[in-house]
Amino acid sequence: MAGASRILQTTFLPTFSKNPSLHTTRSHSHACCVPPTTKRGSFFDRIRCSVAAAGEDTAMAGVLWGCDVDSVDNAAALQAWLSESGLPPQKMGIQKVEVGERGLVALKNVRKGEKLLFVPPSLFITADSNWSCREAGEVLKQYNVPDWPLLATYLISEACLMNSSRWSNYIAALPRQPYSLLYWTRPELDRYLEASQIRQRAIERINDVTGTYIDLRDRIFSKHPDLFPAEVFNMESYRWSFGILFSRLVRLPSMDGRVALVPWADMLNHSCEVDTFLDYDRSSQGVVFTTDRAYQPGEQVFISYGKKSNGELLLSYGFVPREGTNPSDSVELSLSISKSDKCYKEKVAALKKQGLSATQCFPLQITGWPLELMAYAYLAVSPPSMISQFDEMAAAASNKTTSKKDIRYGEIEEDALQFILDSCEACISKYSKFLQSSGSMDLDVTNPKLLNRKAFLKQLAVDLCTSERRMLFRAQYILRRRLRDIRSGELKALRLFDGLRKLFK
Ligand SMILES: C[S@@+](CC[C@H](N)C(=O)[O-])C[C@H]1O[C@@H](n2cnc3c(N)ncnc32)[C@H](O)[C@@H]1O
User: Fold this and answer.
1) pTM, whole model, 2 decimals?
2) Nearest ligand 1 atom to alpha carbon 69
């Protein structure tokens, strides 16, 4: 039962393809988008005004849609619109909260095991939602644009229509600048996340988003500037819309894994201590979740965004849970085959067959590490005499193959453990260097706005690095103990052998 419910879990972080490509299927005629209630001129004038109003601070302020992350000014309008649009009366209300700035708070007693929310499908935003600018939607569908870029473009298109869009109350309540690593500049990532593998994941994600936008622009927008004016459909607005998707899009397993923005449900914050997820409920025909504990009036209600590490939570949602509170936390340990290895070529070739490379990352948890990591370490330290086993080791190091993972080579076990320990220690020293220097960073900043931002990012990075280093310390402790046991076992065996030899002499 637990297994089945795990499969049905919904997370707030759908996987975003590493290379979200668009497939052009056929060419199409040039069409003009005139929103239903506005004349063409006033529509574009309005768009230009909204972009211009961002002024010189655009890079910091982002696009002008949505509100401050902690603002509840638009909450009443959102709640009223949702009620008019079919959301049944709720036992929760949007309020300022201590965790997550705004969240849903119990207004009445909520029992454990109670179903809450019941957001009907008419209130979801999906890839099939009707576009206020119908022609723009038709163009994207002609090009078979995948769900993620389609939804990102839909959000921008609806946002710039403001009150002419059905979703204006929803969009007005979205954060203007979602917390997300998409908003960190490259120097900020390099400076604050140098020690963590999350830096690389963030760079890849930013590149994916940029690549997706450029692809849309070059293939589609450039051919339809009337529908997709560059003043609106630009990198800054895509950063915003992808930031919204990464932090709010829900995968609904009971709707065949469909992704959707679910207004109201997306006001729920995450807790690592909670084990309940959003999903579509066929019997009530709405998105619900079942509480796994009771709540009293005034208490914030939480869900789980899925079993994610602190790094993954920072990457998509822009927060790091309190130290030691996330049982799903893990840190990526990077292992490499040494270029000076006599069998470097053969080892890399064996890894390549499994889709692996000379440098691989493996997740370490406070409770241990995967068998694949040990297999990789065996390969890294194995001598030329073991060349016939390289393929077996590489296959066991891959999490894609079904081959035996639990391999053991007694003769090189000590070397393999020492290799992992050395890699751990190299990693720990990077974290320690960052954490030691973080106290003295950024004191030269004179602009208070910038200082706040820097202090905030630095704090997030310190929290992440502290939790990641903690797992490495634990691994270091376990590895040292194992090595000590192996070495003392060897010593005992040696003494025994010596004793026997003397006896026979
Ligand atoms: C799905 S939204 C939840 C509603 C959000 N608090 C809001 O006001 O719009 C996800 C965002 O909420 C915030 N959040 C959620 N859980 C959090 C937590 N445990 N700690 C800090 N921030 C959290 C993060 O900013 C995240 O990007």
Assistant:
1) 0.86
2) 8
